[in-house]
């Protein structure tokens, strides 16, 4: 990355070339494979296989990685930064696996676009749907990548229809597959009608692939008339459906660009990457409030010269010898500089950002400067919380990162009652870091809160951290609830809930009322029957 001579002159251009995105998918759709192939095609790694092993090749030689290994924290996989065709891409990890947690959702608050990866033999799976809902809430532009075309899958038109109807999303294919599984011949670019031929190389996609390109007519000789006739017919159908490409609608999050390919065999990866670099969304302006009382609404544009950013994730070091935590900050406006002083929007305190870190690719650990869209890792002894705004020269608060309805609930069972106070402190502090959410029962007040999480792993992390950092051993006893919703609407709705024994009303840490229920069906029943009740899946701000 070149260092500009005049930082303020460079700001608009640096911001405009940023592409900050995440990949949303169900486990096994191929996210790791696709991530690795994006890095391979960008030249950030030379031989695929490095990301998955996370220990081989060029990635492992960075100081950052060494430090990471010594300290037992995993950062490199959280944010990957790489260059492609003049764009600076930041790929943020959104785990869909066992470590699925609220972090996964919150990361989507820090990206400007998402790639929705779908296994074309499976269609839209549960976790993809949930993550997509978060994208929709943020009106994020979504690029769909239909993966594993080298294997048999659903008919492309049926799959497209499924995506469109289950997600209630307009879709606009930019390439289209010719056959699939053993008959997969390649894709045709919908706009140029150029065919990109698929050639199974047998190298399991470890190297960049040269694809042969030709017109549809020329392709007849190679793949046969039947396949080409079918594709032409399908393209006509698509065209007839009126979903021609509309870039502005894509950027507004109204229509998804669709690509088909095979991450494993590298096919279609280059087209996706090119699209991300050229056409995905750049950093957007954010709404916030300015001033000590947070009274003045402001819109902060990336090219605003005053630096601002917000913390979307805090990762604790599980090694007891190093109690540092890393706060992940997304730059919103201005130029971030190492050593700069910033004001924490929540409490007005000043912090010096002395040891900021960046991630991978150029093998550099300390970052000197960063631009809107970039992610910076800040070592934090405990000053920062999820959702904190950091800004230079003024006190600013961006509209918060919402909390998401938990799906797992438990209560603590303390082995040593003398540790109650420590446990309470630990729970409150860790909830500020976003490890878990706390819910208070009106009858017992602020004692013995119930705990909620969107992924089971959050409870395990909590237990471990309570032990290591607070010296508290406790058991977690599952509660029977599977649903939580923030309560809004008419007061009669709340009364209705409180008058029934099969619903439990609790309060979150901001004293907002939340209803807990055992099944989705019950939640729907309340929605249908309680007068004037409105239920929110995401904490209303
Ligand atoms: P995830 O991170 O989303 O969970 O998926 P991951 O990349 O680990 O891929 C899950 C499995 O799907 C892997 O197979 C991977 O090789 C395979 N896969 C990914 N992309 C494609 C593709 O385009 N075509 C085909 N046929 N398979 C694909 P695995 O057997 O679990 O691992 P491995 O032995 O292949 O490494």
Question: How would the blueprint of this fold be written?
Answer:
Blueprint: H1 7-16, E1 18-25, H2 31-42, H3 50-53, H4 63-71, E2 79-84, E3 87-92, H5 102-107, E4 113-119, H6 126-137, E5 142-147, H7 156-167, E6 170-173, E7 175-178, E8 186-189, E9 194-197, E10 212-215, H8 216-223, H9 225-240, H10 247-251, E11 255-260, H11 269-279, E12 286-290, E13 296-300, E14 308-316, E15 325-333, E16 336-337, E17 341-344, E18 350-352, E19 356-357, E20 369-370, E21 375-380, E22 389-391, E23 396-398, E24 408-414, H12 420-432, E25 437-439, E26 450-453, H13 457-470, E27 474-478, E28 483-489, H14 491-498, E29 504-507, E30 513-517, H15 520-529, E31 533-536
Parallel strand pairs: 1-3, 1-4, 4-5, 5-11, 6-11
Antiparallel strand pairs: 2-3, 7-8, 8-9, 9-10, 12-13, 12-23, 14-15, 14-22, 15-21, 16-20, 17-18, 17-22, 19-21, 24-26, 24-27, 25-26, 28-30, 28-31, 29-30
Helix pairs in contact: 8-9, 12-13
The chain binds guanosine-5',3'-tetraphosphate.
Description:
The chain has 541 residues and is of the alpha+beta class. 28% of the residues lie in helices and 28% in strands. A hairpin with an 8-residue loop joins strand 14 and strand 15 (325-333). Helix 8 (216-223) packs across helix 9 and helix 12 (420-432) packs across helix 13. The longest helix has 16 residues, at 225-240. It starts with 6 loop residues before the first helix and ends in a 5-residue tail after the last strand. Guanosine-5',3'-tetraphosphate (G4P) binds at residues 25, 27-33, 147-148, 150-151, 262-264.
